[in-house]
Amino acid sequence: MAVSSESPQERIGVMLVGLGALASTLVAGVEAIVRGKARPIGSLTQLYRCNGDANNALLNEVLPMARLQNLEFAAWDIFPDSAYQSAVKAAVLKPDILESLRSRLEELKPFKAVVDDKNSRLLTGRHVKSGTRLEQSQELEREILAFKEARGLKRMVLVLCNSTEITQLMGEEAESIQNFENGLKNNIDTISASMIYAYVAIKLGMPVINCTPSQCLEVPALARFAEEKGVPVSGKDLKTGQTLLKTILAPGIKARYLGLTGWYSTNILGNRDGEVLDDPDASKTKINSKLSVLESILEPERHPELYRGFYHKVKIDYYPPRGDNKEAWDNVDIFGWMDYPMQIKVNFLCRDSILAAPLVLDLVLLIDLAARTGWKGVQNWLGFFFKSPLQSHQTKPIHDLFQQHGKLEEALKLLRKASPPATPKRVAVAASH
User: What does the DSSP 8-state code read for residue 240?
Assistant: First the structure.
């Protein structure tokens, strides 16, 4: 199927659920890059050079992706702070760069958020919608359509970057979209805020990206709804810090046929994400996402002499002084020739939102392109970006970063074949929107 004739120069609405550290860093970063104040380090769509291209062309020169200056942001949040105020509080970015972007960031003020105390217990805000789940979904729909009309947009993408919700056992409301909609009418509390946002977006034909570990797009009703509406969706839980390193190290251990007896991981983090994860049930949602990686990569059923019964433990602790600069410690117990034990110790002091923001940008641009190509439902090829990649039709998820990258490259080749001829090389933008 060919990419639609819609111009990449048309503006795209990027609707952000949550305007915290990640979202404000994303918006500020895009604005800084457009103004020529920063480089898009960490972004595949902006820095990837196509294999076999005689001109060593960048991906965004050969695929008709949206341009950064044409992204229009809107957001919902439980606090009324503008993107500038949120960025200042998050303290991810230096004050001088924020001050230079202040006027633009102050323009982005969030709508009231959908949230409920059962699914997000430790984080409370005053900037929230009232009413039943059905009434909240109807208000979301009105807000999206009003923003679309006011900005003259044809295409939009929803990005879930809100705080982690607890995982609940769902009933018949998860089985079909009719049951889900009845659940909204009956205000069933197992339908979380994330699910409501995703439902409304899919209903309106908007691609959905779940950057969180929260239960959402894997709910059968929503997954099938996306297929029926012809909407691409992807998720879940961005792969940034500790899990990124695991998906790099574990394939290397396996490739060298070294054994593993245990992998202990602990994380300390502050900011809003850490505060929410201080709730054991929310933390369980995140930990389950992190634990899903090693067995898939090492395949103990195929290599029982090396990996059967290895011990894997993950801990997350809220430590306010760390702010957004998350720290991850890993102790890896391996064994080699003649069963002699060895250890790998890693201390990763990373900047969570700095690692995550370019992933969100890439996902927005790529899923928009997928939508214009007619791809629908769960986008397996975008698993490269996630800890717990969603899979369609009961296929087994891939966690090995290098295998995921191969699947991504295969999809990019297909998109390139479906695209119109390459446009002339772009000139870097150095002016404000």
Answer: -
